[in-house]
Amino acid sequence: MRRSSRAVLALAAAAAFAVSGTGTASASTATASAAASTSMAAHFGTVPASSTAGTIGDIYPSKWRDVPQDSVVDDWNMYNRECVSWAAFNIARHGESANNYGDAKYWDDNARNHGYRVDNTPTAGSIAQTDNGTYGHVAIVDSVHNGTVTVEDYNWTGDGHYLVHDVNASSFRYIHFYN
User: Fold this and answer.
1) Of 139, 146, 133, nearest to 165 (Cα)?
2) Would you tell me how many other CB atoms lie within 10 Å of the CB of residue 132?
3) Residue-wise pLDDT tens for the chain (179 aa)?
4) From the CB of residue 37, how many other CB atoms can be counted at a distance below 10 Å?
């Protein structure tokens, strides 16, 4: 759903922005239902965070956050308000790069090929990665708990928004770009 139907939604959102002066456009019920059924939240469920996020917070630049999802390409060749764009932005803040890593399902392999450690041990600041779903998913680990991790990400629910939530730690691999 990322490129084809999202491109249509981005065009609709851009048209709504041009007409109304706001960045809000709504998808049809059928499209919204399709997004929900293919979202990571639909695959894994989503649980409110068990602790207050302290690692990052939504510091995603407004040039990507305040425009319709998938309407621009970021500095790492990824569409805005996607999990990969959010993660690449935060990795770059620490002097590392995930430039051209592509869909989230390829991040573990690309990271290994570039010499980064990939394992099953979550640490604050590591990237949680899964191949599940059409495109996979990446998120930034905020904190580690007994069997769960609190993560910060974009597009968990398929709507291009920031979210802090808990996930089962064993459902993900962890990429250690800077920790």
Assistant:
1) 139
2) 14
3) 444 444 433 433 333 333 333 332 223 333 333 444 455 666 566 555 555 555 568 899 999 999 999 999 999 999 999 999 999 999 999 999 999 999 999 999 999 999 999 999 999 999 999 999 999 999 999 999 999 999 999 999 999 999 999 999 999 999 999 88
4) 12
DSSP string for residues in 29-48:
HHHHHHHHHHSHHHHH--EE
- Look at residue 37 and give its three-state secondary structure: helix
Question: Model pTM?
Answer: 0.75
What residues pair up with 144 in beta bridges, in sequence order? 149
The helix or strand, by DSSP H or E, that contains position 162, with its residue range, turns out to be strand 162-168
Which CB contacts under 8 angstroms, 24+ apart, belong to 144-147? 144/169, 145/50, 145/51, 145/169
Other CB atoms within a 10 A radius of the CB of residue 46 amount to 15
